[in-house]
Amino acid sequence: MKCFSRDMIVQTPAGYRRMDELEIGDHVLSIDENMIQYSPVVMFLHKKEDVEAEFYKVQLKNGEFIELTEDHLIYKTDCERRGKLELVYAKDLKAGMCLDFSKDHKMSLQRDEIVTIEKVRNTGIYAPLTATGDIFVNNILASCHTNYAVKSLQQTFFAVYRMVKGRYDSLFEKPLIQESDMPYGAEYLSSVLDLFVPKNLF
């Protein structure tokens, strides 16, 4: 599982909203080509309110923190100078590394140092997918994807999936799937990308 906990919040044009209150179509703070902007939630890879999971609670010096599962991707940055953002798994984060964040509607990236990382258990797993593939959670920049080598491939795959689902739903009264979780078939195909494309390809 690659998810956030239900207690996490995201920033919308109307203010902050909890992860478990988020719906498809809501616009949330994201980033695209270094430009901070609002992006629509196009689907949920996971949305299960009753599933318990272990999360990494990563806290910054400024008090901001984020809870995400060990294999969820997040951006780390150079603490000393502004450089290229690097995608890493939550389990590979260490105290002393820096993360990027944006708050108070400033629409600019700031960075701060990780001071503590601890494992916590929480109920509710949520993995919204935005049109840009990235999302600010608890003001901290993270990815919606599972494999940094195939982010563009996964984004293309989900775009095609949404198009097919939209066509199906427009033709039939019963939706192809409920909007609470990614169907097994789509999840399987996405996981195939993880298996056959090396994570360190780029």
From TrEMBL:
The entry's localization annotation reads: Secreted, Extracellular space
State the CDD domains in the record. Hint
List keywords of the entry alphabetically.
Answer: Developmental protein, Secreted, Signal
UniProt entry tagged with the keyword Phosphoprotein = no
Per the record, its GO cellular-component terms are: extracellular region
Q: Which GO terms describe its biological process?
A: cell-cell signaling; intein-mediated protein splicing; protein autoprocessing; system development
**Secreted is among the record's keywords:** yes
PANTHER family in the record, alphabetically? PROTEIN QUA-1-RELATED (PTHR46706:SF12)
NCBIfam families linked: intein_Nterm (TIGR01445)
**Any idea what this protein is called?**
Uncharacterized protein
